[in-house]
């Protein structure tokens, strides 16, 4: 199910509506002109199951948000921010068709 949801848009964020780090990563992408698909797990009836599956994908570290770009796992906020800072996020977004400039 995670793979299907992750492939539905160029950028997919699994989030919680009350999480400040989730808000920060959503703002990062929106500020770059990217329109991510956002799945708020605390509002989804299958949210707990999805969160457990995401935790397994991350190797047991169950930190939200979890970001996929082009259907591929980027990771939690630490990986997203590191990619943004080191300059690898924008090319990844362009390759996925989420960013044109």
From TrEMBL:
Database matches in Pfam families: Glutaredoxin
Keyword vocabulary terms for this entry: Cytoplasm, Redox-active center
Recorded GO CC terms: cytoplasm
Annotated localization: Cytoplasm
Membrane spanning residue stretches: none
Domain Glutaredoxin: 11-74
SUPFAM superfamilies named among the record's database cross-references: Thioredoxin-like
InterPro entries: GlrX-like_pln_2 (IPR011905), Glutaredoxin (IPR002109), Thioredoxin-like_sf (IPR036249)
Entries under Gene3D superfamilies matching the protein: Glutaredoxin
Origin superkingdom: Eukaryota
Entry similarity comment: Belongs to the glutaredoxin family. CC-type subfamily.
Protein name: Glutaredoxin domain-containing protein
Classification lineage: Eukaryota, Viridiplantae, Streptophyta, Embryophyta, Tracheophyta
């Amino acid at each position: 199910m995670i793979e299907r949801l992750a492939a539905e848009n160029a950028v997919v964020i699994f989030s919680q509506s009350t999480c400040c780090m989730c808000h920060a990563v959503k703002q990062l992408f929106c500020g770059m002109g990217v329109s991510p698909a956002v799945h708020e797990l605390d509002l989804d009836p299958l949210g707990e199951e999805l969160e457990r599956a995401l935790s397994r994908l991350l190797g047991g570290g169950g930190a939200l948000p979890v970001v996929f770009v082009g259907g591929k796992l980027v990771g939690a906020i630490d990986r997203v921010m590191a990619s943004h800072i080191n300059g690898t996020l924008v090319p990844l977004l362009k390759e996925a068709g989420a960013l044109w400039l």
